């Protein structure tokens, strides 16, 4: 299953070191865990989005490539891809960038020809082959139609997909230089929120989060002194303040790290897919580790 991670330390810039994909334990592990891409997105001091990403394919001699990147930003977005749609290529690796925003997705949307038809001329925003980037283009269009209101754009795009396309899951994280949005829909995959005070639960610790299986680790000494808001596909430590987002819940973390949460999609997808409905590659990409 793809892994999502988003962090905001706004209004402060934070130094963080990310390890995306640690080395494999064995060749047998390689045959079972085949990450198809890793990516990290952040923003420069003047608000320009930056992305470091690469396809990491099963045909290589190792299941996991070790990437380390030390950067400074108010917001971060990390993604580890297990491909369901699109070739193993940089153009299909998350995060994606459009209109100065970064986006990553975990899930499956089907009937891409109908989504392409809905996008029309905005299909030109899409550089790769994935359902994820197409959905991002729909969010970008709907955001522009609503005067730049990203939350309204996400809600409108998700509602259109829920009513018109076969859908397995639509968990997303979207970031700008100083804001973060996340959506969990429906209840297929988990998405967790942690509002972390400076120093964490004990008040004296740096941030040191490690995901299940060592796929993602984040370390920041700066967050001994500053708070942060984290969104992730799984609880990354034993902090008791992790909260599971509700199905259909849209989360917004503002420039001052104020968190607003509301359920924007209370209805089930009209064409909800199960694992049994997916083709084998897509089904494999959505299995829990």
From TrEMBL:
It comes from the Bacteria. Keywords: Glutamine amidotransferase, Transferase. Transmembrane segments: none annotated. SUPFAM superfamilies: N-terminal nucleophile aminohydrolases (Ntn hydrolases). PROSITE patterns: GATASE_TYPE_2 (PS51278). GO terms for molecular function: transferase activity. The keyword Cytoplasm does not apply. Residues 2-256 form the Glutamine amidotransferase type-2 domain. It holds the Pfam family GATase_4. This is Glutamine amidotransferase. It comes from Streptacidiphilus jiangxiensis.
């Amino acid at each position: 299953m793809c892994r999502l991670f988003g962090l905001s330390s706004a209004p402060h810039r934070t130094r963080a070191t990310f390890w995306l994909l640690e080395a494999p334990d064995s060749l047998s592990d390689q045959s079972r865990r085949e990450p198809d891409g890793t990516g990290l997105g952040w923003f420069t001091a003047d608000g320009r989005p930056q992305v470091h990403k690469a396809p990491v394919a099963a045909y290589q001699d190792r299941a996991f490539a070790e990437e380390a990147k030390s950067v400074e930003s108010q917001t971060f977005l990390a993604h580890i891809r297990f491909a369901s749609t699109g070739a193993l290529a940089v153009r299909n690796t998350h995060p994606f960038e459009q209109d100065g925003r970064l986006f990553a997705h975990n899930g499956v949307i089907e009937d891409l020809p109908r989504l392409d038809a809905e996008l029309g001329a905005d299909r030109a925003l899409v550089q790769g082959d994935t359902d994820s980037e197409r959905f991002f283009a729909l969010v970008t269009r709907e955001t522009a139609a609503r005067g730049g209101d990203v939350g309204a754009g996400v809600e409108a795009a998700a509602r259109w997909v829920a009513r018109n396309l076969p859908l397995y899951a639509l968990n997303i994280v979207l970031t700008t230089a100083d804001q973060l949005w996340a959506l969990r829909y429906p209840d297929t995959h988990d998405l967790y929120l942690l509002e972390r005070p400076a120093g964490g639960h004990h008040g004296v610790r740096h941030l040191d989060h490690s995901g299940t299986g060592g796929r993602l680790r984040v370390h920041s000494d700066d967050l001994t002194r500053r708070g942060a808001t984290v969104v992730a596909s799984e609880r990354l430590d034993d902090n008791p303040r992790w909260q599971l987002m509700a199905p259909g819940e849209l989360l917004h973390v503002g420039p001052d790290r104020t968190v607003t949460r509301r359920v924007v999609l209370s209805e089930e997808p009209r064409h909800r897919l199960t694992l049994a409905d997916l083709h084998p590659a897509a089904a494999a990409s959505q299995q829990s580790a």
